[in-house]
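Ex. 9. Protein: HTH arsR-type domain-containing protein.
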Amino acid sequence: MRGSPIVTGEISARAGARTAEYRNVRYSFKAEFFKVLANPVRIRILDALRAGPQSVGELRARLDTEQATVSQHLAILRARNFVMTERRGTTILYEISDPAIWKLLDAAREIFNNQLVSVRTALEGLQNETAG
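Predicted structure tokens for HTH arsR-type domain-containing protein:
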């Protein structure tokens, strides 16, 4: 019975289920995206790459971290398309894949700083209450 209310309702229900499924996939993707940023070494690597493409050795020196650690985190960043590589002779250089990542890190830093100001203000208020 094409066009009947029952069939139309079933189609709407399936479309709604697909929309909900798509929404869940999007949120899962976002969660996985932010998991990549949930490591201080990876954030430091991304910040270091603001200076331009760099080798593992250059990043290791800049971050004062073991080369194996830098390589491990670069592999994760590369697998998730946060960085890309370019070979120059025998050297592999890493660079940011999308400069919008820096905007995201800058926004996170701003939010973090705002939260610190709020906490500091609250602590100063408590200090004044106990002193008074």
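Check your answer against this statement. The CA atoms of residues 44 and 63 lie 7 Å apart.
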